[in-house]
TrEMBL record:
Lineage of origin: Bacteria, Pseudomonadati, Pseudomonadota, Gammaproteobacteria, Enterobacterales
Membrane topology of the entry: Lipid-anchor
Localization: Membrane
Protein name as annotated: Metal ABC transporter substrate-binding protein
Gene3D superfamilies reported for this sequence: Periplasmic binding protein-like II
Predominant place of localization: membrane
Any GO CC annotation of this UniProt entry: membrane
Alphabetical keyword list: Lipoprotein, Membrane, Palmitate, Signal
Position of the signal peptide: 1-21
Family: Belongs to the NlpA lipoprotein family.
Keyword field contains Transcription: no
Organism listed in the record: Pantoea wallisii
Keyword Metal-binding: no
Amino acid sequence: MHKKMIATLALFSLFSTSASAAALRVAADPVPHSEILNHIKATDKKLDLEVIELNGNLNANELLARGDVDANYFQHVPYLRDQEKALGEKFAVVATVHIEPLGIYSHKVKTLKDLPEGAQVAVPNNVTNLSRALYLLQASGLITLKNSSATTLATSADIVDNPHRLKIIEVEAPQLPRALDDAQLAIINGNYALQAGLVPSRDALALEQAKDNPYANVLVTTPKLAKDPRILQLASDLESKQTAEFIRQQYKGSVIPVNP
């Protein structure tokens, strides 16, 4: 074989080896996603995992589309599908991990029975979580929507009965814990509740049910990387019994593993 060809093949082999051995970069919300990933990083020594914590200024799906990260772990599938439409991208779901039940919280009332007429209710302003919030209000007996099935997206325009004359106020999801100082109720995503020091299983006046919940959080990557051995190993770790047990012990019902 020609010496130049041998050198080229050797260089290609070296590049391929170093690429496959590179750290797997995963963007994740601080709580609980980064905590779960760091648990895996500590227990699976064969997986070189780099956890990149998100802040409010970063869109993890844009980072993934640009190749700045190899995967992200922070969202549920309905939100992901909206993001695919908005970004004109196609992503791949490779693991389904946990549910963060949306909760109703208050600094103003102790029970939903104490809610005054015309109370302000702060809800997430993105399409899917707004719908979840409205269905949680319906499940709690506070409003009635056109549809009873949570699989149909709802907006405030779908409220057909509002006996308490609740005022629905849409707020950026990360800001919802702060809204507790002003609104009578705030409906907060589990991760933001935990970050704010709330314990959903203890502090929420009402919580979403885990059964048949379509909003499980998932590990997402690109179609090109979906079969990458590092991605497959992380997916296996996230869906393992060991990770499910860690979630149960760490969050005590505030985060619920999908897998047994």
